[in-house]
Structures are given as C-alpha cells and as structure tokens.
Amino acid sequence: MNRTAKRSAGIIAALALGAGGLVPLTLSAAASADTGSYFERTATYPVYQNHPEGAAAETAAEISTVSADGQTLIYTDALSRMIGFVDISDASNPAGLGTLPLHQLGSAEDEPTSVAAYGEYVFVVVNNSKSYIDPSGRVDVVHIADRKLVHSIELSGQPDSIALSADGSYAAIAIENERDEDAGDGGLPQTPAGSVAILDLLGGAPDEWTLREVPLAGGTREKPVALDQLAQAGLDTPQDPEPEYVTINDRNQVAVTLQENNGIVLIDLPSGKITKAFSAGSVDLAGIDTQDDGKLDPSGSLQGVPREPDAIGWIQDRYLATANEGDWKGGSRGFTIFDSLTGEPVWDAGNRFERLALSQGLFPEGRAGKKGTEPEGLAVHEYRGVEYAFVASERGNFVAVYDLSDPREPKYLQTLPTTNGPEGILPIPGRDLLAVSSETDEADEGVRSALTLFSFGAATPQFPQLSSDPSAPVPFGALSGLSADPEAAHQIFAVSDNAYEPLIYTIDAGQGLVTDSLPVTEDGAPAKLDLEGISARAGGGFWAASEGAEGAGNTLVRIDVDGAVAERVQLPQDIVGTLKGQGLEGVAAFGAGEEEEVVFALQREVGGEDFVRIGRYLPASGEFSWYGYQLEDAGDDGSWNGLSEITRLSDGSFAVIERDKRIGENAKLKAVYQFALPEASASAPNDTVPLLEKKLAVDVLPVLERTNGRTQEKLEGLAVAGNGQVYVVTDNDAVKDASGETVFASLGAEAEAFALAPAASTAPTESAAPTASSTPTDSAAPSTSPSSTPSTSEGKGDGSAGAPDGAESAAPDAGETSAAEPATDDLAQTGVGSLWFLPLGLVLAGVGVAAALKARGNARGH
Q1: b vs e for 346-369, b when ≥16 Cβ sit within 10 Å of the residue's Cβ?
Q2: Where among 668, 689, 724 does a domain terminate?
Q3: Beta partners for residue 558, in sequence order
Q4: Is residue 157 a contact partner of residue 176, using CB atoms and an 8 Å limit?
Q5: Number of H helices, E strands in the chain
Q6: With contact defined as beta carbons under 8 Å apart, do 551 and 573 qualify?
Q7: What is the pTM of this model?
C-alpha cells in the first residue's frame, strides 16, 4: 500500500472511531455524542475586511442582529461610528456587504450602541450625548434592503441595549445615562438617573410608532430620588439606577439589569408598570485565582462579592439568567439563575465558571486581581426543543454553553473559543447557527475584532483539545515546548514560558489531559527562567532551554526529578552575546552518562549571520559545536521567520518547527522540517558553520486552520511520544493580546510524518565527537561513518531538503512517491492527511479531506 493509500485508510479508520475521544464528565447527559447536540465553529470573519479602509481600520464588532430571512448579519461598530452588514448565507464563508456610517444618519460623532432587526427594518440605537451630564440619544429605523433612513425617534437620554418582543408589539430600550468614571471617585450617584423606554409598534408605518418612558427614579432630572420599590429592594444607590441590559419574555415582561446598583427590575410592557425589583445579592467565592502574580493559583477566596449583573435572559418565561461581570464594587465571576417570582437565586455558578477557564487554558491571569474571567454577554434560546444558555467571558475569550432543560440545575455542555472580547451573542436557531461578535481590535498585536459563526448539530465538541479536570483543575497556559516521557508511552511533558512561574506539565497525550504540574525551583524558590524547550533525560530529570532577554541570559538548564535546578550552562558568549532576545527556543537531549548529548535551537539569526544556529552540547566535556539552518524567506512585509522547537526522531535525525510571526488570515508558514546532523561542525568562533539540508515534513498550517478559528501565531511545541505519535501545541500567550486558544493536535504516526532511515541504521552506536570544519562549505557532506548520526543526502545548494542518510535504500512501491522524497508541491504526501484532533474525539469530517489538503498544497505552491 502506498503512502497516500495508507493515509486514506487512516482517515476512514478515524471516521469509524467516531466519538472515540474523552467526553468530560461534566457534559449534559441529554447532549451525548449520538444526538448531534454540539456547536462547532464554521467561520471567523475579521470585520476590518468589511471596512472601507481595510486592515488599517480600527474596528469593534459589539452587538449584532440578523435579518428576518437569517441571511444578513448586522453589527455595531462603535469605534468606526458605523454599522456593518455581512452576508452569512454560507455560514462557512461570510462575505462583507459594506457599512453604513452614522454620519449619514445624523452626525459623525454619533455612536451606535445596539441593533435589532424588525421585519424589513433594523433599529439602530444611537448615543449622541454631548456629555455625561447632558446625555441624549435616538433610535434610527433603517430599511435593510437599501440602507435608507426611514424614521428617527428621539430618546430622553443615553441608550444602551434594545430588545424586541416575540409578538412584534414592543421594543424596550435601556436608557442608561452611564456614570463618568473619572468624576469624583467614579462612583454613584451621578445625575441624571436612567429609565426604560418602550416603543409601541402596534401601528402601521414607523412614523406612527409611539414612545413611552418608564422612570426608574423620582424627583427631577437634576435631583432624582429613589422610588420606593427600588429602595425597599436593597439596591446600592437606588436614586441613580443605570439600566444596562433588557430582555423580554413571551408574556411581554421586561427584565432589566441595574449593574452598578446590583439589582433587577421587572416591567409589564402593556401597562408600563414596575412589577418587581430585587437585589442580585452577593456570593462568597473560594478556589479561585485572586492575585495578579504570574501564577495560575486557584487557592484564593473572596467574601460577600456583589454579583453586579450585565446581560440577562429569560428562561421558560419564569427564570432569569444573569452574567455577573461586575463594574463598580463587584463581579462574581460566574452567572446566576433567579426565580422571577421570588427574586431569589435558584442556582449560582460559584467558582465553576472560573475553574472551567483555568482547566482549559483560558484564564486571564493578568485580571485575577480584578474580575477574573468577567462574564459579560449572555443569551438564552431554544435549539431543536432544548433551551440553552450561552455565557461569554470577556477576558477569557470564550462562550460556555449550558443545557437548561432544568433551569434549577443547568448542565455544562461545551466551550466555544472566540476572538478577544466577546460581547454580543446572537442565536439564529432558524438556521441552527450562533454568532458571536468580539470587540477587541489591536492591529499592532495581530488581535482583530471579529464575528465568529458556529453551527449546531455536531456529534462531538471541537474544543478544548487540551484540558484538565475542571473539578480539580491543573491550570495551564503559554505552553512553549514538548518532550516525550521515556517512562510512559502515552505521556508527554510540556513547559510554559515566563508568562507564569516555571512549571513542567504532564500530559496524557492520547486523551489530551493535563494531569499534573511540577514547579521548577532554585534554592527553594521559583526559578527565574523563561522556559522555551524541554527534553526528558534517559536517566530521569530534564534538560530545558531558557531564553534570555539578551545573549547572556540564554541558558541550558539541567533539572532534577523533583523540579530543582541542578545546573545552568550558559551558551558561549562569543557566539550568542550579540543576541537581543529571540534566543534559545528548543532542546533535545539523548544518550546517558558520558555519551549524553544536548542539541538545541536558537530562534533567530545571530548578528551578522544569515542563518540560524543549531547547537550541540556535550555535558561530559563541556564542548559546544554548531550547525547552520537556513530559514525560509519571510518576505518584505515586516514579518520574520524563526525556529521554535527541536525534537530528535527515532532514526537519529531531527525535526524543528519553523514559523512566521504572522497571525490569522495573514499566516503563511507554520511547518515542521527535518534534517540530520552531519559529522562536520563548527566548534570555534571563526570556524565556517556547515549549513544543514532540511526537508519539509509537515505543513501544519492546515491543522491550525482546521477548526475555522483565527490562526494561531505561535506554533511552539513538537514531540514524538513513546506511542509513535507526533504531537504539536501552540503557545496561547497567556490569554494576553491573543485569543488564548490552545491548539493541541496529533500529526499522526512518526513514520508517516517523517522520512525515516531504515531500522538497520538506528542500532545503538557510539556517537562521533563533533569536529571543526577544515574547509569552507555550504552544506554538510554525506557521511558513511557507522558511528555518526544520520547525514543528509544530496540536493544541497538550491534550498531543497535532503533525506536522512540511508533512506534511499528503501525502494518505494511502483507508482508510489518515495518516503524519502515527498513531492514538495503535494502537501497530501506530507502526513497531514491522517490528522485528527484530541482529546474529545474530533475526527476529520469526510473522506474528501485528503483531496482538499492536496488541492490546498498545490495552491500554496510548496
């Protein structure tokens, strides 16, 4: 069977496995893998692509709505002072339809705060306030088809959210009149007080609609006083309610959150009467991370935290779910379900929402001392007869999905990864879709505001691919290096970089489970290291690569089995002294005792050189030797390419990750290359460094694009586990200026991913000592010495990659592409075709994937 046929068989076998991965114990029993009751991401659309200025624009997709036919999504962009239109008729390929700048409706200073589609129209809620003390706003009625303004309705103050009744009779608008956080101590009260506006839609044309207002405070605009109902509810500052979010049930009851007042008010729409007001109360939290200290440490606690709810949604016309973001004095880091009849909570997430983020690598540690995950957005809707809650973490960049079959005991279903700052959650049940709009946009950091689409009906969740037990989380993030575990074939080790105190993680690779973490210490305290690579030693313990801010800080670190630093080995300063960061990135240790060797990779070129150095260190003698690795051309757009990992393969050759700096739709190079170390090397500063002959093994870009998210920049870790499987992982940058999503995937079997030398050439032999090159050379000469590690084959000088020495002796079947020489223009021959994600049983969806990858590879021209 040729290699392509083997991969096709692998795909079919993977499909036959179905939900063969781990199913978290916290999943709803009603949403088993057999029911197709999961959401999966179909597209991520950066909204700058819909902006007239393109990538140079600063955008922010916040709140969205959808046309009556479910084909056109409309979103607010407050930064650009416009609303945008996107064709979502193909949920896997959203297409921009352009924007409507608000200066065409009123003034260039107008800011859209919300949108809601209503028949052929869309309501555009506009803040046109002159100041905090003189707030004002309006609702513009725009015809969707031609984007013409039909009618404008003036409001008494600054609006925030809008909701429409299911029967089409009413719209409710929260008139927030938000506080000025820079006035005084930034707290309440600040005049004027807020209210709720009711738009009656019972008439014919928009100009016949009428507006009513429900005051939430008495007195005057300049001197408001508390209403008895709000004062008796025990709200924080009832004379200054600031309505935040509105929702309407099928009985035409409005529920509105008063976030800063930590309360909820119910209003009957037909009469405009306040029917109930109650406090959202407070919670005691334990088992959470409360310190911004560079540690993922869920051992903190908080007492008496006001919930301060933001978004709110009705459940079964009786219960209310709130996302408790907090704003002023609180934020309970979760969500709560209240009984609207009593005003009492019937369920609260406690620490579970936060621990979910900790267990899935999504906890924003830099916000631990504030409001943690900050659950802000929330929506409730029914799909195929089951009601679900969607709760968005503004800082953790995810939406958690819960089955609400029993509102008093919601069941966690899955996590949906988003881009940064998910704000608006838009269920589109008529098309089995969910849209999430994320507002954060930092073009310089590669983080772009985006719309993410998910479809309902998948058999298994796509995410997380790596996690720990949420009931007892092993928090992780910023993974920067992988290593096989010599003692357990199914396990690998990982390290995190200096985003956190250094830890060595143990991962059950087959299940994608982080099972343990080992602190790295020095003199009894957390070691000050920036761990970028890890390699388990044959006799126990580890070698690690610690990257320095400058050349002097680049250090090989020997760590014992208890995590204590046993030795630091500084790289030769006459070689790396000119480095200004971007130094040590990977390490591969092998052999034992006097025969132990440590091979390592730098990320970027040393000053004055046009290649990256691969180094070899012999602990027994302290000797260093060097090889040169030629990076691919990064182009002229200001990006760069570099190495981020090195791994020794079973035949003695090596694999490295080479990647560019690009992110998202701009990413071009995320790949694994293979080479062998020749006998010749450079051991003195003035020696000519032999250039290695590399061969493309796997284009990993299709893997990073597989689940339709924003392509991760930092492909960082690579390991071949004892079970023969090749694993890769991305660094999520500690959920800071990055989406925080961790991609952990198998590239299939080592023998499929790499061109390995025949087994006969891998018998244990004494490794040859590196020797200095006596003559200048472009590349390594093939070695025939039985005591040397495998050398590269011919093919030097043109940038092509050579196979490990001896590989050509394995003759391919007739008509088969040689394993030693995969066609460089056909990525279906590189091992990518047999991928499947871990750990939740996500498999490649369709036998046509191999052909699709082949076509993609041909299009890239590799």
Answers
A1: ebbbbbbbbbbbbbbbbbbbebbe
A2: 724
A3: 543, 567
A4: yes
A5: 7, 56
A6: yes
A7: 0.86
Between 814 and 306, residue with greater pLDDT? 306
d(CA 853, CA 702): 8
Contact 415, 354 (CB under 8 A): no
Nearest Cα neighbor of 792 from 629, 558, 582, 616 is 629
User: Where in the sequence is the domain holding 277, given as residue range(s)?
Assistant: 38-458
Please report, as a single letter, which amino acid is at residue 613: R
pLDDT for res 754: 98
Residue 173 bridge partners (DSSP) = 162, 197
Q: What is the pLDDT of residues 829-853, one digit of tens each?
A: 333 333 333 333 333 333 333 333 3
Average pLDDT (20-24) is 29
Helices (H), 564-656: 573-576
- The secondary structure element, H or E, covering residue 850 is helix 849-860
Q: In this predicted model, what pLDDT tens digit does every residue of 685-716 receive, in sequence order?
A: 889 999 999 999 999 999 999 999 999 999 99
**730 occurs within a structural domain:** no
Q: Are residues 435 and 539 in the same domain?
A: no
Query: Residue 339: is its pLDDT beyond 60?
Result: yes
Residues 514, 646 within the same domain: yes
Q: CA-to-CA distance for 537 and 550, rounded, in angstroms? A: 27
Read off the CATH number of the domain in which 339 is found. 2.130.10.10
Residues 690 and 613 in one domain: yes
Least confident of 13-27, 470-484, 546-560, 575-589: 13-27
856 exposure class (CB count in 10 Å sphere: 0-12, 13-18, 19+): middle
The number of distinct structural domains making up the chain is: 2
Residue 239 and residue 346 in one domain: yes
Q: Is residue 97 helix, strand or coil?
A: strand
Of 600, 797, 824, 798, nearest to 699 (Cα)? Answer: 824
Going by C-alpha positions, the residue among 687, 718, 365, 694 that lies closest to residue 509 is 718
H helix intervals, 352-477: 352-359
Say if residue 271 is in the same domain as residue 353: yes
Question: Could you say which DSSP state residue 804 is in?
Answer: B
Helix (H) or strand (E) holding 5: helix 3-17
- Which letter, b or e, does each residue of 34-63 get, where b requires 16 or more Cβ atoms within 10 Å of its Cβ? eeebbbbbbbbbbbbbbbeeeeebebbbbb
Cα torsion 229, 234, 237, 242: sign? negative
The pLDDT tens digits of the residues spanning 745-784 come to: 999 999 999 999 987 544 333 333 333 333 333 333 333 2
Where does a domain end: 423, 458, 493? Answer: 458
Residue 651: CATH number of its domain: 2.115.10
Residue range 255-278, pLDDT digits in tens: 999 999 999 999 999 999 999 999
Within a domain: 4: no
With respect to residue 20, please indicate whether it lies within any of the assigned structural domains: no
Is residue 19 in some structural domain? Answer: no
Q: What is the largest CA-CA distance in the chain?
A: 95
Residues 442 and 542 in one domain: no
Alpha carbon distance 491, 723 (integer Å): 9
Token pair listed for 848: 């046509």
Show the CA angle centred on residue 47, arms to residues 42 and 53, nearest 5°.
150
Looking at residues 643-649, what average pLDDT do you find? 98
Helix (H) or strand (E) holding 851: helix 849-860
* Mean of per-residue pLDDT scores for the chain: 87
Regarding whether 517 and 641 lie in a shared domain, the answer is yes
Of 799, 764, 749, 748, give the one whose Cα is nearest residue 778.
Answer: 799
Task: Enumerate residues 6+ apart whose C-beta is below 8 A from 5.
Answer: none
pLDDT in tens, 198-230: 999 987 899 999 999 999 999 999 999 999 999
436 and 483 inside one domain? no
What's the gap between Cα 768 and its chain centre? 44
For 558, the token pair is 């020997």
